[in-house]
Design a protein that fits this description.
This is Chloride channel protein. This protein is mainly alpha-helical and 817 residues long. The protein is built from 30 helices and 13 strands.
């Protein structure tokens, strides 16, 4: 079986000229994109005669084209902004396996080749894990150093970040562990002041300048060298994994620029994370490494299995969560995920996590920056505030998606989209100006989440741990805790200050995350969403803690509090809130919970996480079915057939197929009787990506389907290398040669490029079944027949436009943005 191309506006090939003025070239809304086709698609004008013998005689002429599929590079490949043929690719892979298995029984060399072929997939996973882990470790180290560079520099070595600089110092006190003589702020270096308003003003100015410099460099590098390096990358990865071709999106320049600019963007202090872009980076690594393995380089379906595993690797190195990464790939990203891919994803994620652990980018022997351990058990009634956090996460997710899509649509449809550099600089300036005065927005989002997840111990000096008892002692005093009992957990002045600063930080994070996601710099969404939820969770946790302490004698709180122990863990609320908000935005459930307990080590808190994640998804789904990634896929008009979206309308195939009533008949080829000139004229006059082949115009019984690209390459190759081919040469798709006069020019036999078993449905087939067929088999098009006669064609584009029309959306938005 083979299902072929969407008959869609795709530009035309003819006479060495590919006219790219079609709508598909505008699919990705990135200006000034230059795509290099040379790595993936052989040029149409390549000389294929090298190494072949073209002796004279009619036999060599007529047999030359019979093995076209094997001898001519370019046959069976795909153009940019087209969908792959899953069925044909899987069929090619099965044929390749069958051939290798047969040859392995004939010689020892062939047997060794068979073993190496079977092992190559695991070797590729090993290389992807090593490369992605190494890059992620480098990104973490560089981002941490450059974030601290905005505040000062280490005198012992400028390459040390703040924490590493003060590690070796003997003059660091525990209360002021971040201060040491070796670390100098910019004010101390430039004007020699260590206190007073001058210190604040100079540090403020340098903080803003560094932020602007980093953001400006990031957006300039993206625009100049790799426009595809902007954004999260996950919407495009999902589209590519569904079978769509976006040449250059996973190329070497995209990898290099995304790695560099991701460090710059994170260090600039913008409200974005590196987790989503790390998935893109891992997929770039996988795509590049696939070129060294023939079976993955030549088969787009096999390559997508590798990219699914690479998505798992990206999450594994982003969060230090290998199991969560595999589940993320399975639940959120992958379109086709066989069991073999599950095993290989697990292996690749394991290798990547081991590599990251060996690099130890955070210096704490952990895979993640905010590993925490909570010691107080949660109480059953606490499920109520956990569910409330889930409701907040769902509301935030629905609000964020609508607000962000509205902002991105405004960027697309107004002159704002013509000034991406100015937009990034202005947003960075506002972010830096408003973030510096507030402690919790000045620090990086990862440090903020680590602070909010933290369970206050006896030696913590953070404002969030400033509790005072009747005698005014802090929780840092063991004597005060013992003397005051529960009174030692009453909120102190530092905690009240932290609370209003967190409330202000919550508002700023919300606003800046909405306008930042989608700008022309690498921008992830996981960490900002988690930061919003963690702030809300910590605020609620502190409120619940104070409520339980002040009313511990009431029945509802009885047994919660005991002298010398915490009643409630506010850090747990921050963790649950982070999961709820991330779930509301991405609509993840199983993978989210696993990522969160791998991220924090909070294995015993799975039930609160599950409750919050499910509540968040229910609330967000009630307000809008799409996750942020699906919303961006629809905004960009990518041809993605969402498996979660149900089709409930009672339409038939005849309602969707083309041609419609009043349209000219479908363009077809006949299996014999057409000349090279007629076929070339048909190609030049149409923009379709393929043509049905019928017996004759008078008897339109379906024979098969041929791709436009295969047809063009075959005709050009025949004109170049087959002697005697002229415009009047007949085109034959038949198995047997029809009788021809001796003076007739030689025929061009194209039977080998003909798909003899295209998918067909009848005019009475319900569209619900047709949509299911397209989803589950990854079809590009199917032909509509009645009693064997060809009546029309339904493409993936037609399906998407019909579904948009049924949902009262603009059908012309599909594939035209």
């Amino acid at each position: 079986l083979s299902a072929l191309t969407k008959v869609m506006d795709n530009g035309g090939f003819c006479d060495d000229n590919y006219q790219s003025g079609s709508s598909d070239d505008e699919l990705v809304d990135i200006s000034e994109v230059t795509v290099d086709f040379s790595e993936d698609v052989p040029p149409l004008d390549r000389d294929y005669s090298a190494g072949k013998t073209h002796g004279g005689g009619e036999k060599s002429m007529t047999s030359l084209m019979d093995l076209l599929d094997d001898t001519v590079p370019g046959i069976g490949t795909y153009e940019d902004f087209n969908t792959i043929d899953w069925v044909r690719e899987k069929s090619k892979d099965r044929d390749r396996h069958r051939e290798i298995a047969n040859k392995s029984k004939q010689s020892t060399v062939a047997l060794l080749f068979s073993i190496s072929d079977a092992f190559s997939g695991w070797l590729l996973m090993l290389l992807i894990g090593l490369m992605s882990g190494a890059l992620a470790g480098g990104i973490d180290i560089a981002a941490h150093w450059m974030t601290d560079l905005k505040e000062g520099v280490c005198l012992n070595g400028f390459w040390f970040n703040h924490e590493h600089c003060c590690w070796a110092s003997n003059e660091t006190t525990f209360q002021e562990r971040d201060k040491c003589p070796q670390w100098k702020s910019w004010a101390e270096l430039m004007v020699g002041v260590s206190e007073g308003p001058g210190l604040y003003v100079v540090n403020y100015f340098m903080y803003v300048c560094w932020a602007l410099l980093f953001a400006f460099l990031a957006v300039i590098l993206v625009r100049a060298f790799a426009p595809y390096a902007c954004g999260s990358g996950i919407p495009e990865i999902k589209t590519i994994l569904s079978g769509f071709i976006i040449r250059g999106y996973l190329g070497k320049w995209t990898l290099i620029i995304k790695t560099i600019t991701l460090v710059l963007a994170v260090s600039s202090g913008l409200s974005l994370g590196k987790e989503g872009p790390l998935v893109h980076v891992a997929c770039c690594c996988a795509n590049i490494l696939c070129h060294f393995f023939t079976k993955y380089r030549r088969n787009e379906a096999k390559k997508r299995e590798v990219l699914s595993a690479a998505s798992a690797v990206g999450v594994s190195v982003a969060f230090g969560a290998p199991i969560g990464g595999v589940l993320f790939s399975l639940e959120e990203v992958s379109y086709y995920f066989p069991l073999k891919t599950l095993w290989r994803s697990f292996f690749a994620a394991l290798v990547a996590a081991f590599t990251l652990r060996s690099i130890n980018p955070f210096g704490n022997s952990r895979l993640v920056l905010f590993y925490v351990e909570f010691h107080t058990p949660w109480h059953l009634l606490e499920l109520i505030p956990f569910v409330l956090l889930g409701i907040f996460g769902g509301l935030w997710g629905a609000f964020f998606i609508r607000a962000n899509i509205a902002w991105c649509r405004l960027r697309k449809n107004t002159s704002l989209g013509h000034y991406p550099v100015l937009e990034v600089v202005v947003v960075t300036l506002l972010t830096a100006l408003l973030a510096f005065p507030i402690e919790y927005t000045k620090m990086s989002s990862s440090e903020l989440i680590s602070e909010l997840f933290n369970d206050c111990g006896l030696l913590d000096s953070s404002k969030l741990c400033d509790y005072s008892g009747n005698s005014g002692g802090t929780s840092g005093s063991v004597n005060a805790t013992a003397a005051n009992g529960l009174g030692a957990r009453l909120a102190g002045p530092g905690l009240y200050t932290a609370m209003w600063q967190l409330a202000l930080a919550l508002v700023l994070k919300m606003v800046f995350t909405v306008v930042t996601f989608g700008m022309k710099v690498p921008s992830g969404l996981f960490i900002p969403s988690m930061a919003v939820g963690a702030i809300a969770g910590r605020l609620l946790g502190v409120c619940m803690e104070q409520l339980a302490i002040r009313h511990h004698e009431r029945d509802i709180f009885r047994g919660w509090c005991s002298p010398g122990a915490d009643c409630i863990t506010p850090g747990l609320y921050a963790m649950v809130g982070a999961a709820a908000c991330l779930g509301g935005v991405t609509r993840m459930t199983v993978s989210l919970v696993v990522i969160m307990f791998e991220l924090t080590g909070g294995l015993e808190y799975i039930v609160p996480l599950m409750a919050a994640a499910m509540t968040s998804k229910w609330v967000a789904d009630a307000l809008g079915r799409e996750s942020i990634y699906e919303a961006h896929i629809r905004l960009n008009g990518y041809p993605f057939l969402e498996a979660k979206e149900e089709f409930r309308h009672k339409t038939l195939a005849t309602d969707v197929m083309r041609p419609r009533r009043g349209d000219p008949p479908v363009s077809v080829l006949t299996e014999s009787g057409m000349t090279v000139e007629e076929v070339e004229r048909l190609i030049a006059d149409t923009t379709y990506s393929g043509f049905p082949v019928v017996i004759s115009q008078q008897s339109p019984r379906l024979v098969g389907f041929v791709l436009r690209r295969d047809l063009v390459i075959s005709l050009e190759n025949a004109r170049r290398h087959q002697e005697g081919v002229v415009s009047m040469s007949p085109i034959l798709f038949t198995e047997c040669d029809p009788p021809m006069s001796p003076s007739a020019p030689p025929a061009v036999k194209l039977r080998s490029i003909l798909d003899l078993s295209p998918f067909t449905v009848t005019v009475h087939t319900a569209m619900e079944i047709v949509v299911d067929i397209f989803r589950k088999l990854g079809l590009r098009q199917c032909l509509v027949i009645q009693n064997g006669r060809l009546l029309g064609i339904i493409t993936k584009k037609d399906i998407l436009k019909h579904m948009a029309q049924m949902a009262n959306r603009d059908p012309d938005s599909i594939l035209f943005n």
